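Sorry to interrupt, but I need a hand with the structure work. Could you write out one complete protein record for me, on any chain you like? Could you add the entry underneath, on a fresh line?
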Amino acid sequence: MQFAATAPSRVRLPSGVGRYDIPLILQDKKFDSGVNLGYNQFESEGFVGNLFFVNGKVHPYFKAEGRKYRFRLINGSLARYFEMYLGDESDRFHNFTFIASDGNLLERPLTLQRILLGMAERADIIVDFSKYPPGTKLYLVNRLEQIDPRKPTGKLLNPGIRMLRFEVGPRRPDNSVIPAYLRALTPIDRNAAKIIRSFRFERNNGQWSINGKFWNPERVDAAPKLNVPEIWKLQSDSGGWAHPIHVHLDDFRILSIDGKPPPPEWRGRKDVLSLLPGDAAEILVEFRDFTGNYMMHCHQQAHEDHAMMIRFDVVP
């Protein structure tokens, strides 16, 4: 798993880690009535929490200068999806600029009002606080309702859960730029992939499996060749459960989800794909740098820990 590398100097994105380039780890955690953090390692379904954290703190605040910031969001929850918005005191929602997904810059920036994050997914966004008068308060808001570990309900909360408060200060000099173009993306050629593999993410007798098999570190479930493109078909077929699928070693490109092109924010290189119940996706994989033993698994932690994982070996 990686975060987006700093762009070349000619692309002057907001920089300075911890100053204008800020990681934001989004989590929910479950506490009992005695305010004890709860986790049952033998619970195979997982759970959603009752308190929300950013960088380990409950509803923190951030004093922002009146300039552009880059925020690197990651969903660090066990089973909760987030749909994040930028809201104000009146619960109006504002645009931000989306530039990278799962550690990879997009070809061009996107202007969005929302971003969906499954477990372990990352999103880099830019917020320009110079647009707001000093003293303005803005909020990073999760609006996606989820009441159990299965999946989000699909309902948007109104106004939502304010997870982080931004307090806007005076304008400051800012030589950072949001360019019209970020990086080149290799055109997708699905016809170059002659090998097609299928993986079904299933629930068998209350346990999690892929293609009807449980994790076995001694078993090789696929052996793709180095620098040879393949199409992997991923199917969520587990009776109403969502699965964020993480492929180790290299990134992939999404060809389709339920026969349709992916949304613009998912058209770059990724290493996590969120499958909602019944989803069928096709991804183009090509392992370019290393041979060896690697994994693909569901990143819902309880599913991963209870055998929803395969081993694949990249061979010469």
